[in-house]
Amino acid sequence: MNLDQATPEQLQQWEAELANQYQSLQDQSLNLDLTRGKPSAEQLNLSDALDGILDGDYRAADGTDVRNYGGLDGIQEAKQFAADVLQVNTSEVLVGGNSSLTLMFQTVLFAHEFGLQGADSAWKTQGKVKFLCPVPGYDRHFTVCEQLGIDMVTVPMLSTGPDMDQVEAMIKADPQIVGMWCVPKYSNPTGVVYSDETVERIAQLANIANPYFRVFWDNAYAVHDLVENPPELANIMDACRKHNTEDSVLQFASTSKITHAGSGVCFMAASPANLAGFQQVLASCTIGPDKVNQLRHARLLPDMTALRAHMKKHAAIIQPRFNSVLENLSSAFDGTGLGTWETPVGGYFISFDTLPGCAQAVVKLAADAGVKLTPAGATFPYGKDPQDRNIRLAPTVPTVEEVDQAMKVFEVCVKLASVRSKLA
Ligand code: PLP
């Protein structure tokens, strides 16, 4: 199917054939869902040993009774876990409650209202401020900015990470840019891992940016590999140390997609100066995090060997679902020019770019045939994809058979929407 060289008659004929196929899919009254970027019950079961694991022993390694108040930055063994995942020193880590999104929201809020390096550093003193948002990206990052009245400016994601030529040019030209969102490994939703060069360039942004510029390095999928010998993400903190820019990067992650998504442990890594600024405000919010849960996690996953073995079990569950999506995309669209996508080897998402102007139509067609897809536009600030192209596919929750069925529907919807857009 080559739409560019097709005659109007050919297009009409394809439209009729696809509409027929679509009708027979509709007749099946399917009820499938590729929207949910969360672990399946089978994955959650892998961590059920958390329940009762302390067995009455509430003492952390240093003797702390974790049931009591205190320990604003977390217990030592949870810090070690976080430091291992993010490959930083334990002195650069703070371990919090169950959600890294909460930590990110708090960090943006604190930096805006109070400053991470004293009142003069508060972004609000500078009037309107902006964040750079690589797109497509994670919708909840954008919601944080929207909620706090921070403007968003977009920059395209490439297969190496954000387009760094554009990032540097925009940051140089606009001192109102005080932040940038990054999901550096298996990015949500494109699945790419930032290249070494991208990491190196991001570590140097502070040299051309607003003095209180911060990169929000959300490494949510740091250990979520689906293959042996996965791609390695360069160490951003090491790069920052080399360029003397340690204060410019704040890293985040959690066990949400390692253990129980709703009751995991989150953490951040930052320079001592940033951590001190953050904790000073955090101390007004809480006397300390849920250390009982931190200890439960440390007992379940005492070291990187245990964590790697655990993540292999997740991979065994997720990989067939990813394979189904990728094989279906390849067999339906390779060489057709009807869409583009990356081939992630980890994370939770595959993202598909339709021809311009087709994403909303595809999502609507799929919904009407019983397949729920993430709303088109969700991967852009304010829910607006200017080219109406991007669709995020999240295959972890349905069974492999369901993913396969849903992808067959997706194929017909993409083809039908594409042909119709040419006829319009
Ligand atoms: N960051 C990214 C990139 C995500 O995709 C998600 C969840 O989908 C989160 C953060 C949420 O993390 P948490 O559960 O730790 O709040």
Write the layout of secondary structure elements.
Elements lengths: L7 H19 L5 E2 L7 H5 L30 H11 L6 E3 L4 H14 L16 E6 L3 H9 L3 E8 L2 E2 L1 H10 L3 E6 L13 H7 L11 E5 L17 H8 L5 E6 L11 E4 L2 H11 L8 H10 L3 H30 L5 E3 L8 E5 L4 H10 L2 E2 L17 E4 L6 H24 L1
Helix pairs in contact: 1-13, 4-5, 11-13, 12-13
Bound molecules: pyridoxal-5'-phosphate (PLP).
The site of pyridoxal-5'-phosphate has 12 residues, from helix 4.
GO molecular function, one term: L-aspartate:2-oxoglutarate aminotransferase activity
Keywords: Aminotransferase, Transferase
Pfam families: Asp_aminotransf (PF12897)
Detailed description of the structure:
This is Aminotransferase class I/II-fold pyridoxal phosphate-dependent enzyme. The protein has two domains: 157 residues, Aspartate Aminotransferase, domain 1; 242 residues, Type I PLP-dependent aspartate aminotransferase-like (Major domain) (Aspartate Aminotransferase, domain 2), CATH 3.40.640. The protein is 40% helix and 13% strand. It contains 13 helices and 13 strands. Helix 5 links the parallel strand 3 and strand 4. The mean pLDDT is 97. Bound molecules: pyridoxal-5'-phosphate. Pyridoxal-5'-phosphate binds next to helix 4.
Number of domains: 2
Helix proportion:
25-40%
Q: Give the C-alpha Rg.
A: 23 Å
Major beta sheet, strand line-up? 2-9-8-7-6-3-4-5
Strand content: 5-15%
Helices and strands, in order, run as HEHHEHEHEEHEHEHEEHHHEEHEEH
CATH domain class name of the largest domain: Alpha Beta
Structural class: alpha/beta
Average pLDDT: 97
Keywords: Aminotransferase, Transferase
Protein name: Aminotransferase class I/II-fold pyridoxal phosphate-dependent enzyme
GO molecular function: L-aspartate:2-oxoglutarate aminotransferase activity
Pfam families: Asp_aminotransf (PF12897)
